[in-house]
Automatic annotation (TrEMBL):
Membrane topology: Multi-pass membrane protein
GO cellular component: lysosomal membrane
Described function: Mediates H(+)-dependent pyridoxine transport.
Cellular localization per UniProt: Lysosome membrane
Protein name: Solute carrier family 49 member 4
MF-aspect GO terms: transmembrane transporter activity
Length: 438
């Protein structure tokens, strides 16, 4: 017993240490520095798409004098943005099969064509009006990619601890473009002076000057979009050579299976409804904010500043909340509940302020501005948090398909709202309360 020496086979361990098998990583992952360039190009394109979409709303009084646009024309020009989401399945399919580059190139091409079409300086007003509407529709066709591809880009290029922040930046720059149009339009395009009696000659000169300034802004936006299109054409890879994480390299569901999975997931549909109602309402409401606030004796410039600060505040607060979500996981639902609760209180405050003749509550400019800005901050900042919650809920459905579905629903709500502008106060208040139930 033990007198003889052991053989080589007897000295082999019965259990092989785990490090022998895991010493070689089955999935090579790497984070590339060029991800920031990709994020910057995409964000700037989303910025320009948002600026073109929200160009006419902040200057609706000037557009009425320069081109004879009515309030219905302004509402239809804003409506072309949601209408551009009708072929969203095509863009989601292209993104899923060919990557982000193919979908982004097609969307940017639509943006260039739309910006060029509406910038053609024709003197005939009927034909010019049709060209402007056509240009807005082409710009709206870029919406499915610009508004829903942010989570797909962040998962494809960024590490898990940076994903929520990248999603926030890519998703909110479209909103930031809408905010920029609130400032660029009213500051460059002068508002018509209807308070003084003008002669026919001076009125004609004033309208020509307004038209020239509008043309100047459209030329500048066309040039910026053309430069960005050239940059994307020269360099915008579909995906990095190696994925940034194991999750990015994992096998995802097919396009058809993803759609079926989303439509049969009750929890996803409830969260999607909670996202679509308030964000769709605030998007349509912001697009015609100048028209909405005109009965409250708010000037075109002041309405622009209200829209600017409500959107910019939402973007800044949204990025901050995304950074917080990156550091502390598992709190997305709580963050959303707090945001929607704040939006409900602010929208109720704004509604009561607008109905001061019935409620006999104080109604001042400071109260009106503050309540309106708070509504935009709370709702707009919830967008990236919603996107992260969607991705975690329906994994392994591809991020582009998931966010494409929910942004389509949000734009569907926006389109419906534009047909019921007279009920904007009540709709906004009810939508926030309704979303908190989920």
């Amino acid at each position: 017993m033990g007198a003889g020496s052991s053989t080589e086979a007897e000295r082999e361990p019965l259990l092989v240490p785990s490090y022998v098998e895991t010493n070689t990583n089955p999935v090579n992952s790497r984070v590339y520095g060029r991800r920031w360039l990709v994020l910057t190009l995409f964000s700037l394109l989303a910025l320009m798409q948002g600026m073109v979409w929200n160009f006419w709303g902040p200057i609706q009084n000037s557009a009425a004098h320069a081109y004879g646009f009515t309030k219905s024309d302004i509402a239809i020009l804003v409506l072309w943005g949601p209408a551009g989401f009708l072929p969203w399945l095509l863009f989601m399919w292209l993104m899923d099969k060919k990557g982000l580059r193919a979908s982004l190139l097609l969307s940017t091409l639509f943006m260039v064509l739309g910006a060029a079409l509406r910038s053609i300086p024709l003197t005939g007003q009927p034909l010019r009006r049709w060209l402007i509407h056509g240009g807005q529709l082409l710009n709206g066709l870029a919406g499915p990619t610009m508004m829903s591809a942010g989570p797909y880009l962040s998962t494809t290029w960024f590490a898990p601890d940076q994903r929520a922040t990248a999603t926030a930046v890519a998703s909110l720059f479209s909103y930031l473009g809408g905010a920029a149009s609130f400032i660029v339009g009213p500051l460059i395009v002068p508002a018509p002076n209807d308070t003084q009696a003008l002669t026919t000659i001076s009125a004609a000169v004033s309208d020509i000057f307004i038209r020239d300034r509008i043309q100047l802004v459209m030329y500048a936006e066309l040039a910026a979009i053309a430069v960005l299109f050239g940059a994307v054409l020269l360099y915008f890879p579909a995906r990095p050579p190696m994925p940034p994480s194991v999750a990015a390299a994992s096998q995802r569901l097919s396009y058809r299976s993803s759609i079926c999975r989303l439509l049969s997931n009750l929890r996803f549909l409830m969260i999607a409804l909670a996202y679509a109602v308030p964000t769709g309402v605030i998007a349509g409401w912001s697009g015609v904010l100048d028209m909405v606030l005109t009965p409250a004796k708010v000037s075109q410039v002041d309405a622009g500043w209200i829209g600017f600060w409500s959107t910019v505040g939402g973007c800044v607060f949204g990025v901050a909340m995304a950074r917080f979500a990156d550091s502390i996981r598992g709190m997305l639902k709580l963050i959303l509940v707090l945001m929607l609760a704040g939006a409900s209180l602010a929208s109720t405050w704004f509604t009561l302020t607008c109905l001061s003749s019935y409620t006999h509550l104080p109604s001042t400019s400071a109260i009106l501005y503050t309540s309106c800005i708070l509504v935009g901050i709370f709702i707009n900042s919830s967008v990236p948090i919603f996107f992260e919650l969607f991705i975690e809920t329906v994994y392994p459905v591809p991020e582009g398909i998931t966010c494409g579905v929910v942004t389509f629903l949000g734009n569907l709500v926006t389109g419906l709202l534009l047909f019921f502008l007279t009920f904007y106060c009540k709709v906004l208040d009810i939508s926030c309360l309704f979303s908190m139930l989920f």
